[in-house]
From TrEMBL:
This is Small ribosomal subunit biogenesis GTPase RsgA. The lineage of its organism: Bacteria, Pseudomonadati, Bacteroidota, Flavobacteriia, Flavobacteriales. GO terms for molecular function: GTP binding; GTPase activity; metal ion binding; rRNA binding; translation initiation factor activity. Binds 1 zinc ion per subunit. It holds the Pfam family RsgA_N.
Amino acid sequence: MEGLVYKSTGSWYMVKDLATGHFHDCRIKGKFRLKGIKNTNPIAVGDRVVFELEEENRGVITEIHPRDNYIIRKSVNLSKQTHIIASNIDLAFLVVTLNNPPTSTTFIDRFLVTAEAYSIKTVLLFNKVDTYNEDELTEVKYLASVYRKAGYECIGISATTGKNIDKVKVAMEGKTCVVSGHSGAGKSTLINAIDPHLHLRTAAISQLHQQGQHTTTFAEMFDLPFGGRIIDTPGIKGFGMVEIDNNSLTDYFPEFFALKHHCKFNNCLHTDEPQCAIKEALERDEIAWSRYKSYLQILSGDDKVYREENNQ
């Protein structure tokens, strides 16, 4: 039977039978774990699978169909393992907060590069705008301008008051969407605002560390009443990059990609080379220094610096 994975707990998977709409708890055959897969999860939410029923409502996944795309990250600790956050995504929302908890530009850029590498459109949702003072709102507007200039859609929202949730809904219609971001950024609150019938559990920010509590333990997908699906994901503390070829990295920064053909050298890495269009644009303030800094950090493969900067 053909199915779609709606929830993954690591050992059991909730699979929707695409023919009947019924849900079944499924496990996977051992062979999936024997193929040298270095992912922590051989099957991800959003995967299209083939499964067989062993008994009523319980089955075994026997095959995974090829994925159109996925969001993947590497642990920022010493682990070599990677984790697929979700697969077969039409649209990703990255929930960004200025504080409570703070979202760094390095975190944003790493997520965006990964999404670009797998051709997943991303919209930045600047949440909690109802809680900011005038100076903080100015900072949020500046940050949004940086990413709009780079080619990304940015929406200022309040998941608690409902500000601009209608705009988010319009973007979601008929699509499979994933919501990602730090713990405490308001992902589950946002999903509850989009569909109040879901009643996802939320928790307050830890005042001691200004970090969110992990209310979402496992990724889970939900059908939406106005069409489409939304995937709630556990909060991400750090976003370790899965290896990207240095010569391709420029392609995943849209504002860099638009200029790179003006560089003197075809293989320009935009570091020390002469007549580099990206560095010239940087000097003219046409490219944000924060974006260039993220580019250099990813280019160097230095997750240690990233961990220290983000206190992870």
